[in-house]
Amino acid sequence: MSDEKNEGVLARWGEGLKAKSSSLKAKVVELLRKTKKLAKDDPRRIVHSFKVGLAITLVSLFYYFEPLYDGLGASAMWAVLTVVVVFEFSVGATLGRGLNRVLATSLAASLGFGAHFLADLAGDKAQPVILSLSVFIFAAITTFIRFFPRIKARYDYGFLIFILTFCLVSVSGYRDDEILQVAYRRALTILLGTFIAILICLFICPVWAGDDLHSLVSNNIQLLANFLQGFGVQYSNESKEDELLEGCKSVLTSRQTEESLVNFARWEPRHGAFKFRHPWKQYRKIGSLTRQSAYRLESLNSYLVTETQTPLHIRDRLMKSCSKMSIESSNALEDIASDLRTMTQPTFPNPHIEKSKAAMKDLKAALKIGPGDGDIDLLEIVPIATVASLLIDTISCIEKIAESVGELGSLANFKCVEAGKSSGLELEQEHQKLPNSAIVNDHCHVVIVD
Amino acid sequence: MSDEKNEGVLARWGEGLKAKSSSLKAKVVELLRKTKKLAKDDPRRIVHSFKVGLAITLVSLFYYFEPLYDGLGASAMWAVLTVVVVFEFSVGATLGRGLNRVLATSLAASLGFGAHFLADLAGDKAQPVILSLSVFIFAAITTFIRFFPRIKARYDYGFLIFILTFCLVSVSGYRDDEILQVAYRRALTILLGTFIAILICLFICPVWAGDDLHSLVSNNIQLLANFLQGFGVQYSNESKEDELLEGCKSVLTSRQTEESLVNFARWEPRHGAFKFRHPWKQYRKIGSLTRQSAYRLESLNSYLVTETQTPLHIRDRLMKSCSKMSIESSNALEDIASDLRTMTQPTFPNPHIEKSKAAMKDLKAALKIGPGDGDIDLLEIVPIATVASLLIDTISCIEKIAESVGELGSLANFKCVEAGKSSGLELEQEHQKLPNSAIVNDHCHVVIVD
Question: Which ranges does the record mark as transmembrane (chains A, B) (predicted)?
């Protein structure tokens, strides 16, 4: 009896264990799948991880070798800390952080030394009071300065490090008699750490924020082109695809990444086809126009989903023009995207924009309803009229996008290719590998978890 | 002659100096104006600056008083560092950073100690090799883990600190014979710094990310209500206001701040009307629906700017319904915003939504065109038809917003007020002070500089 009971308990226990181990197994498999996807979406992530490991290991060598250690002593720790904190995914972000850190440290160390010197003059009793007061005032003012939007965008980290170093130097000066040596060693190790981080980030498979910005902005235009293409075909075929809408929505959410990338790219030196003072800010303008037409297309989408009740004879007349308009607009956007990608000066006026304008005229003519059409419930025409009107709106947006890409072209001296566009093919192949979601995930601080 | 020349030079020099000083003066005045505006937009910024100054000064006292210093020694520096790095604007952000830092430090310190112990066993020659290898592997793996979106959203800082501490402990263990003491002191000082930062952040005029999220989401709904109200009036009056459009556009760009605030708010304890496990994620849903109707309204706007050429007799018929629809929708949104703000369970069905649906029916009836209307150029009706159709679309969006606020209400046990809504007035007054731009600027890492 007892044996049976025991067996029953054992069996249940075994089953429980089995269930748990199989659910654990499922979780591990899921984790591996996600890891693989993460690495596959953007292989640069693996390279980046190895680069960080290499940089930290290199810096930690200072501890192991006597001659290196003797020069720096325990301060070598600051070099390790610097590498960990400064090493970012893109060259621009790393350079920005590194420069901020080095400049802020130097400035704060000298000011902290000055505060210490002044406090020293005031005598033993007053010293802590003066030091505390200066720490309080500097910390409060610097914290407030960090709220200025322009400073927050590019120098936030520098101001943080400024408070940090000022406090460390001025406060530890109270105890440490070798304050000059402390400040000097701290500055030197931070310089060293920053140097190693920048060196490895720059020379081993560098990730350029500028490249990613360039791809992101041209990808976004391409996504709109795809959407319009699909829309034009759908309007005659009645098939719908969620993927295209997802693409269009991802354009709407890429603003903050674009902004980060512009800020990073501005730190970057000349690389590839981009010069040092490449007009990065112009990308912001193109991006915002792209989003403006994405708003239109997003609204357009609801007229695909709602059943259209337009009377057939009017519908046929209008549909052809609408379809033509969206396909020509899509071609125009595709042209713009490929010109941007290959850094070619776009041709003015774009033939596809002209064609879609012609289709617009046809549409307008088709909208004239004679007495032969009989009674009309305007309500039935509303959906297709809305589509027409949003498409007309989109064309003027596309013209603005073409203009701003043209401006970028003249600012950045894009090459002029009159006949044939094959020369930019390498650049195109090089730039079109990454999906937008990977770029957004790589560079943005705030990640949206759906 | 020479005198005259000298005088001329002096005069020019004086003029140059004057011009320079006046331009400098203008710049200083401009800076003061901006500073004042920054402080006025959100006075909590000044309070925050003083709080940071106070926290750092408090921590630096450890250096000045013998008994405190004797316990911690030079490690007291880590406490200063911790306060500077952990102290964020909102309680949620500070708690998140602090917990990340403390947990990551403890875990990494014990692992680093383990690595040191293992390397010790391997003998003098192999020790640096084993240590370097473990640093490389841990750094690379941790860096890769930081790419997982879910981890990046909430634990990014923790993983950064993990690498940092692991390297520091395992590497400095090679030199330092008192490694246990080093690890212990580091952990203790970091705990101390975090404790002081959290204490001051929590008890002196705390800024709750949850409160700001709540205001941001309800403000956004209110902005749409204002826009629709203005639209309804404009459609009869032909006056236009840029401010309303700006409000609508700011809704479109608040997504990332909303996401940050959700992540911060989830760290926060019970405060005010919010419980510990307040359903913060539901705000994400309401926010995204709000943005969805903002897209519609943004498209709507272009039909105000374009000159409407609709024939008068049809226009008059339609305009009244359109105007009514947008004003009723606006009232519905205003209701929802105020219910959310005062945390009142919204009434179902919302009477204003019902009224705007009735207006929609009128509009649909008005869209029937009989033979008496004569020849019609559909093109002339397109603008107003589009407006009608976008408005109809907006109503269904508003219904969804009302639903999701209702869901939030039942998840968070909003109070039910059947008759009169005066009871929530205090909360309303408390919550409506800040403009969205201030909230976005305070909490977002990436700031857009226009």
Answer: 46-65, 77-95, 102-123, 129-148, 155-175, 187-209
